[in-house]
Amino acid sequence: MENSVIAAARPVKANSNLRLWAPPAIWIVTLFLFSTTIFSAANTSRLIEPLLRWIFPAASAAQIVLMHGLVRKSAHFFNYAVLFWLLIRGPMAGRPYAALACCILYAAVDETHQIFVPNRTPSPYDVALDSTGALFSRFLYDAVRELTGAA
Can you count the helices (H) and strands (E) in the chain? Predict the structure, then answer.
C-alpha cells in the first residue's frame, strides 16, 4: 500500500518541478531568440527608430540613433532582471546567489553564442549589463524581503 502511495506522488513532484521551471525556461528561450539575427541592431532600428521619431519629432538623427542604442542596452538590463525574478520565485526560491550565478552564466553563454550568429557581435559589455540587471534584482529581492519581514 505504501509503495503505491509513493508511486502516485512521483508524477505530482514532476509536475511541480515543471511548473517551477517553465517560466524561466520560456524566458531563456525568449532571450535566445533575442540573440538571433532577427533582433540585430539593424533589424530593430526599423521598428524602434520610427517609433522614437514619432515620440520625439524634434530629435536629430544622431539623437534617435543614440536613443535606439539606449533602448537596446536597457533591454539587456531588464531582461536579466526578469530572469532573476523568474528563477528566485520558481526553482531557485530561497537561493538568490544560485539564481544570480545562473543569470551571469547564461549571460556569458548567450553572448558567446552570438559568435556564430550573422550580424551579431558578442560583447563582454553586454554580459556586464545583463549581470548588472540580475544583480539589481538580487538587491531588490533583499529589499522586498526586508520590507515584508520575510526571513
Answer: 5, 0
